[in-house]
């Protein structure tokens, strides 16, 4: 029986190429396994820290709210009164030593 196979030279070449490729892949797998073992040994710091910080950013430090209208105050410009309803924060925040002797109204 005749089997239609390629010339022995190209078959050898193919074999050699495949062998080289297999060797390279085996080497790669070995390296990856070594790396994986290293990674598994140490605690997963990076991922948990990233997710934790993302979670804390959302929940941490709620914006101050106006005691009058309970709306969140815009960041950055917090004056003496609410920008939404004009509620005077001094009315609820601790008053200064309750000393109305010195007239401090300036407007
Ligand atoms: Zn308000």
From TrEMBL:
Residue ranges of the region described as Disordered: 45-65
Superkingdom field: Bacteria
Key words, A-Z: Coiled coil
Coiled coil keyword on record: yes
UniProt biased composition (Low complexity): 46-59
Coiled coil region boundaries: 15-42
Coiled coil among keywords: yes
Name of the protein in question: Uncharacterized protein
